[in-house]
Amino acid sequence: MIFRVLVALLTIACLSYAAGRCNAQEPLAIGADFEGASVRNVEIDQQARSVSFMPGGDPERGWPCWWYFRIDGVGLDEEITLRLRGSSAAVENQKPLAASWAMPSQATYSTDGESWLHTSQGMRQGKWMVYKVKPNASSLYVAWGPPYTPQTAQKMVREIGNRSAHATATELCRSRAGRAVPMLHVREGLRESKERFGVWVQARQHAWESGSSWVAHGFAEWIISDDPPAAWLRQHADIFVIPIMDVDNTATGNGGKNALPHDHNRDWSPEPHWNETMAAQRMVTDLIAEDRMDVFLDLHNPAPGDPSFFYILPRELIDEPMIGLRDRFIDLAYANISQIKPMIPMSRNPKVTGASYHPLWRQISANWVSMNGNADTVSLCLETIWNSPNSTATGYRAVGASLAATVHEYLFERTEQQRR
């Protein structure tokens, strides 16, 4: 009897010890040794299973609001707490950037670095934004928004180039740091260049605005699709898509906006500083010289509380027919983007970028193209909302597809009007 009791107690003790071993938590660890990663001031509370941090990035290379890193050592079915505070680094006004730029309502995470999901709604607690995430994986990536790195851009243009006989994967140029700047060129058929519309789509002149690259991605996917309007557009236009302009800051995890001496979007001057701007400006100038710079679209993400909207020049700075054509394009785009399900908030009211907007307002890309383009050039900056439940890779790509459909609809209308 005593022997049986001892055996039972020993068995219970062994099972308890084994259970404890199984439930023992691995220490959490942070990884940021990959393209696009950015984080600093990391503190890990192993007992609370939380990670406190702020965005990384060199403030001289743009606003420090982008963050992206990996967490290892997560237990099965374990919930991890992310505690984010705004960067303490001084920016151009010698004060820290407002924390709201770094604090999406929902953070983004992935267990494979490919498919990106939203966390639950973050909770603001004083200077902190707190997110909870249960990845059901031993490792996860967390980020401000769905990352889109130069490697992603290279993969996109290469795969679309392989998938479509009408798409060519190429490079706009090499960056100042020697990185490739991927570009997609799409055209179908034997129509001569002089008979084709010119369509230029570029994204990510500000490196932290990752959603804009996903919009460009969706645009590219639509134009090589089997949709008859997409085929018409390919047959009647030369289409150029650059998913990342500021590849260096995107690769190194810097914000890019207001980088020194100025960012890419304020570099459209007679003597550009950035190689990407120089190359894009040269190609756009060639399209203007051929009288076929028809649609120029510069893709961005806006302020935390803004819906999607277009930036435009004041009417007094441009003439007809540019004004009427621009307004028609905006109406078509609003109608198409507003139909996206689930909804992407879109404002019908554009915002103006003129002399009061920024000292270098003439060197902003969409403004420069409007002021130097053809009489019928439509040149616009689309800011796509990033702080919405539908601000996901899927949502952004839907905006890109709707924008491409708008380009078709607008140019098809122009063709029909010219025939009358």
Structural account:
The chain is α/β, with parallel strands linked by helices. The chain has 2 domains: 29-143, Sandwich (Immunoglobulin-like), CATH 2.60.40; 150-419, Zn peptidases (Aminopeptidase, 3-Layer(aba) Sandwich), CATH 3.40.630. It has 9 helices and 18 strands. The chain has helices at residues 2-23, 150-163, 210-223, 228-236, 247-252, 275-289, 322-338, 365-372, 393-419, and strands at residues 29-31, 40-45, 50-54, 68-72, 80-85, 108-110, 117-118, 123-125, 128-133, 139-143, 167-174, 180-186, 197-203, 237-242, 293-300, 309-312, 351-352, 378-383. The chain has an 8-stranded mixed β-sheet, with helices on both faces. β16, α7 (322-338) and β17 form a beta-alpha-beta unit. α3 (210-223) crosses α9 (393-419) and α4 (228-236) packs across α9 (393-419). It is globular, with a radius of gyration of 25 Å. The model is unreliable at 5-22 (pLDDT under 50). Residues 1-18 form the signal peptide. This is Zinc carboxypeptidase. Belongs to the peptidase M14 family. The active site is at 413 (proton donor/acceptor). Its cofactor is Zn(2+).
